[in-house]
Amino acid sequence: MTQWIKRLAFIALVLPMAMCQAQTDEYQAGMHYEVLPQVIRTANPNKIEVNEVFSYTCGHCFNFEEVLHPWSEKLAADVDFQRTPAVWQPALEPYARAYYSASMLKVLDKVHVPIFEAIHVKRESVRTEQDFATIFEAQGVDLAKFTKAYNSFGMTSMVTQAKARVRGYRVQGTPEVIVNGKYRISSRNAGGFEGMLKVAEFLIEKERAAAAK
After folding, report:
1. C-alpha–C-alpha distance, residues 168 and 37, integer Å
2. 3.40.50.300, 3.40.30.10, 3.40.50.720, 3.40.190.10: CATH of 25-212
3. I need a labelling partner for 93 at 20 to 30 A (CA). Which of 11, 16, 87, 196 fits?
4. pTM for this one?
5. Distances in Å between the alpha carbon of 90 and those of 11, 86, 112, 128?
């Protein structure tokens, strides 16, 4: 009887430790996410950054938006959600300019999804400044303000910085999620879109715990 009591006491001591270890190892570097060889500077060093690398021409990014948007809306106050348009080649630069124009004019909530829908649902040809101007204007954005933002000097700088971030992130495709400039998550490693967000949540907690030490 005494022996059984000792065994039960041992199990009661070890089981919580084992459960904690299982939670710690739920997602592993090299399997569910990649650790970047060099930390990339974030927009706000006082917050944990979640940065989606996307492209308007990417159908997977359009589909990801359906689960990403409601998730991003519920992020805690210490998390900073950002996006970086991928510019793999010169032909993609107009899409980056459109995204940053919307950001500068504070109309992302009006035009972000309509740009996706124009390309992937309506199957429209969206490639040039004029194509984007039509979409912005249809959403009530002043055409002169759009044109000024799209061609501004600051715009060129933002596109250049986006290219540099994508190189630093070592992005292999879109969409991918970068957490705090340190970790890269892809749907391939995480097991789909929902998996990407679960891994992101795990890494957010990891960064939060590290900051608290």
Report:
1. 9
2. 3.40.30.10
3. 196
4. 0.87
5. 61, 11, 21, 12
